[in-house]
Amino acid sequence: MDHFRRHYRSHVSWTAALVALVATSPVFAQSQGSEAPATESNGLADIIVTAQRRQQSLQDVPIAVTAISGDELSAKQIRTTIDIPRLVPNMTGTTNVGIGSANTYFIRGLGNTESISTFDPPVGTYVDDIYVSRQNANNFTFFDVDRIEVMRGPQGTLFGRNTTGGAINVVLKKPAETMGGYAEASYGAYNQLTARASLDLPLSEKVFTKISAFGNRSDGYVNNRTTGEKNNGNRGYGVRAALRVLPSDTVTWDVAADYIHDNGVNLPSVLTDGKLYSLTGLKTTAAPLKNLVAGRKSNFVLQNITKNVSFTSNLQVELGDANLAFITGYRDLKQDYLSDLFDGPLPTGGFAIVNAGRFKQFTQELKVAGDIGNALQYTAGLFYIHESNQTDFADVFSLFGFPLVLSDRVLSNKTSAPAIYAQLDYKPTDQLTVTVGARYTSEKKTVGVVPSTTPLPFGVPYGSAAISAKGIPLEDRTKQLTPRIALEYRPGKDVMLFASATSGFRSGGWNARALSAENFLQFGPEKVWSYETGFRTELLDRTLRLNATAFYTDVNGFQVPLGFVDSSGAINFVTQNGSDFRNYGLEAEAVWAPFERLSLFANVGLQKAKYLNPNATIVAQQAACKSGKAASCGQGIVDPLGNLAQPQRTPKLTMAFGGSYDAELGSFTLTPSANASYQSRNTVGSAAVPGDFVAGEWLVGAGLSLKPSMASWKLSLECANCTNTHFVGSNFPPGFKFYNMPRTWRVSAGYTF
Predict the structure, then answer these.
(1) Helices H, strands E: what count in the chain?
(2) What separation in angstroms does the CA of 753 have from each of 145, 162, 712?
């Protein structure tokens, strides 16, 4: 939605701070996967991740990775993907404006607030190695999760799609060899009802199945003063079936299919006396755009319905010292929404956006990984993705009680991108490992627009021919080589030092929300080099795990909004490759288990980002602003004083800490847990205007669970955002605010069998 934003409208020593944190606060420990205190005498349990597309101990991976095990999700109150960023250093995330199914992720300052299909996300989401192309449905509830891995920095070598910011990889549990499962139900604030269940059912010694399902509903936490309805609630459910077949000792075939149905709108609101209120006249019981816009979207009520079907297949064959994998994925997403960005009390809202979308993707990968002797490991493969998307959408602006259809059109776009990749890890000695890798991608994108016939058009309808007439190509081809090199050195058994240089890119696209053909401008890919160094350690007889990374990110051709003067003389702010971007900082993560039943964690992220080398258009905008032309100030990436703005969503400090303790009370185990996260002052808008700044904010969560030693049931009580902190997650000009979720509580009961 950031495109609408463009149309309308003392440095501290971080090294010293990190050293002080580590030296004085060993209880600050980051939980990274299955790191509950091990019962063995040798301390913490090992953490196995697949951040390099093969199973490795986290302590052997020269990449900045945060991993969270499935067992930790409940204790850390991670229910959906939007809960992940608060536990990851230098990562922020919020639900996008208008639609609750879309998450806006930023890692080390690289992110994107636009969910239309001609923009690709710089932070990729994967589920069982299958890429989720569309950011408009990357906020989803989890099924049975084995672990979540968040890779910071560009993923330009081994993962399916090139990304500049990082990747979130959700790994789901495979069917078990024995019968079992769980069921859980909860009730909480805003009449929130949730239910989850899973059943492992082996059919034979060679065939195992798993069925998982969830359902949730909640009244909204925003009171609508115009319609009397509750806004920003959610209704959703999902079901997943997984199959594991073992045809022989050397072949494993995992197949899964799932369906997720969700309805969640994210409307702006105002904070009054500690409560959130909205004014929009859009209702969940009336279709206000009948006879205003074309197609079936004219019948939509206030909603954001997503229906997602996905299929995955992973056939793995062991060939001596090598593993060959055939990985196939298919996703089919339908999204129908009507939302209001200007929160207008009229029946048609203030600035209504209505959308009927269909997004299909197919991916196929052939991957081989193995060893050659004791000195060489390799991972190589071929990857192909094809996307086919169609979006029927319109913008309706209500002026003095009269609805104006600014534009109504059908957008079609396709992407085909084959790639080849390889990475080699060579060990000249037992202590030293040299890694080299590269990926070559050849990408083709096409786009087309068909105008819709509407009764009350305000703008001039345009289609593909009009776009071409403006000299804007409807096809784009990109070929990119993205290399990587890394060094690892082990001076001791429990210490690993590393340094790396990694390249990546984010695809280009088109400004498809343009209200005229001449604003449907193309932009090219942004390219990044990331340089990292750090260490992985296990200390105090392996009861303390401490990992740290220093990074320097260098982005060329950064995709930013800049001023484009159209034929009418008006300035429109559209995405172009308008400047470069630099960011550097530190990240530290640790977990400490001083004794068996206590686990403590913390992380910290420090960063300093800036734009530089602006192009001539931005330089001219700065000069115009400083000469007194107010229309050039506080727009694009130029702040109200005419300077380059502070990059959005780059808090200088992020941190999280907490822990849990298993207390034995007779025949019961009582487990209190708590966590807190903080991000310092930052701006949620690209131009850093005063209304876009968010003060430093804390989020605090706590829980208490009770489980008998000789039974399989469990009772839990928890609160999220326990201090009821309100802050703006997104801000839409001219000042419409989208707040975070207020305090919630829930009581849960579960049974494992």
Answers:
(1) 5, 45
(2) 17, 42, 7
Percent of the chain with pLDDT over 90: 83
Q: How far apart are the first and last CA of the chain?
A: 45
The tally of CA atoms less than 13 A away on the side-chain side of residue 468 is 10
Rg of the chain on CA atoms, in Å: 25
Task: Report yes or no: 270 and 138 within 8 Å, Cβ to Cβ.
Answer: no
Backbone angles phi, psi at 44, to 5 degrees: -65, 145
Q: What is the mean pLDDT of residues 625-629?
A: 95
Please provide residue 606's backbone torsions phi and psi, each rounded to the nearest 5 degrees.
Answer: -125, 135
Cα atoms in the Cβ-side hemisphere of radius 13 Å centred on 717: 4
User: Tokens in use for 553?
Assistant: 């990110």
In this structure, of 1-10, 92-101, 254-263, 743-752, the range with the lowest mean pLDDT score is: 1-10
Structure tokens at 748: 């849960």
The CA distance from 605 to 548, in Å, is: 10
Label the pairing between strands 192-202 and 265-266.
unpaired
CB 379 within 8 A of CB 124: no
Sign of the Cα torsion 445, 451, 452, 458 reads: positive
Distance from C-alpha of 527 to C-alpha of 248, rounded to nearest angstrom:
44
Q: How confident is the model at residue 456 (pLDDT cuts 50, 70, 90)?
A: low
User: Which amino acid type is present at position 393?
Assistant: F
> Which residues does residue 200 pair with via DSSP β-bridges, in sequence order?
180, 210
**pLDDT tens column, 383-425:** 999 999 999 999 999 988 899 999 999 999 999 999 999 999 9
| CA-based nearest residue to 81, from 10, 167, 205 | 167
Residue 545 predicted with pLDDT over 60 = yes
Looking only at the bridges linking them, the beta strands covering 48-49 and 56-57 are antiparallel
Torsion sign, CA atoms 578, 580, 585, 588? positive
C-beta of residue 236 within 8 angstroms of C-beta of residue 264: yes
Whether 302 contacts 279, CB under 8 Å: no
Q: Is the pTM of this model over 0.70?
A: yes
Domains of the chain (ranges, CATH numbers): 2-752 (2.40.170.20)
552: confidence class by pLDDT, cuts 50, 70, 90: very high
CA distance 376 to 29: 33
Whether 314 and 253 have beta carbons less than 8 Å apart is answered as yes
pLDDT-derived band at 14 (thresholds 50, 70, 90) equals very low
- Distance, in Å, from the CA atom of 147 to the CA atom of 155, rounded to the nearest integer, reads 19
Are the CB atoms for 331 and 361 separated by under 8 Å? yes
Residues 383 and 365 sit within 8 Å (Cβ to Cβ): yes
